[in-house]
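Marked as duplicate of an earlier ticket. Keeping the data here for the record.
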Amino acid sequence: MNIMNKVKEAQAKIKETQAKLVHLTAEGEAGAGMVKVFVNGERRVISIHMDDSLINLADKEMLRDLTVAATNKAFEAIDVKIKEEMKSATEGMMPNIPGMDLGNMF
């Protein structure tokens, strides 16, 4: 019965933490900072900043490549932050079961 209470408590904490993820942000950059992409904990792009020197139709392919690279880096960074938030939210709530990592569920 105690385990069921712990599971319910963990579920409530996870839901609460998930609601806070929208406020979590991460940045990815490419081209030595010429392109920066910001994402939130819901894995949505919230803004893209580009150096003015890149706004040139002749460099359109490079701009696309840098944007994709910066976006991927931002998503990698936010995934780390999400995992940390979820781990801290459930820390000590569930028994240490080998192979069961709640942080990887999100």
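See parent ticket for discussion. The chain has one domain: 18-105.
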